[in-house]
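Q: My hope is that you can spare some time for a protein that puzzles me. Underneath my words sits a plain record pairing an amino acid chain with its backbone structure tokens. Those tokens are not coordinates but codes from a learned vocabulary of shapes. Thank you; the sequence and its tokens follow:
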Amino acid sequence: MQGDHSTVAAADQRVRIDWDGRPVDIEVRWVGAEGDRPLLVFLHEGLGSVAMWKNFPCQLCEAVGCRGLIYSRPGYGRSTPRPPNELWDPDFMHRQAEQVLPALLRALGVAAPYWLFGHSDGGSIALLHAARFPDAVAGAVVLAPHILVEQISVDSIAAAREAYEQTDLRGKLARYHDDSDSAFWGWNCIWLDPRFRDWSIENDIATIHCPLLAVQGLDDEYGTLEQIRGIARRLPQTQLLELPDCGHSPHRDQPGAVIAAARALLSGHRGENRSVCAAR
């Protein structure tokens, strides 16, 4: 990322940052009551966006007494699409964690500490951000995160490619993304790239010292329980929640259980998680 200058545009709907020497507009939504409350930053899945979270962030923020910040990463939702022929490199999640998210928080005037709530790729990005900025993150909840590439993930992502090319999946994604090809092919191509098979953040996360809650469904079609159990082996402060009758999206399949566990985690560390938002 080149430079530090960022501006807020269109109230709280779009934030312009400078990333890799080019301006990028980030779709942003604030939820929850303002005031002296902990801030919870939501990081979406590999095909997600602000809109795809639906009402869950509002429900969670109301339950735990937080202010919520939801955003769409570049290439997703209403944010600047991926350039037409741009292919992501295996470090794409590191770049989101170490470049894009810090630039967005600076643009919004968000001061540490803050909490992170990440799903799937967003969960991995949350872990990488907490590892890179250990003093800034008060704690994190990660749903179905990836810490290494498993065959089950590759097989399901290959099946998603077939569905995108042969079914109405493209049309369904168009409800949530200005450019569904930008969102889908950025994610799909890198996950199926042979260079990505050796991707792992198992060593990267060793510097995390904040409280963690790692959640995974027993029926997750994109990863096994090794993903969250691997986190717990390396980070003993991790609380695990393994949910039956639950696939890759615990916040959709088992929202009550996720909210209850997140509320318990945050309430146990309430005094450690004040942050300030200078811009709305």
Observations:
- The chain is about 35% helix and 20% strand.
- The first helix runs from residue 56 to 64.
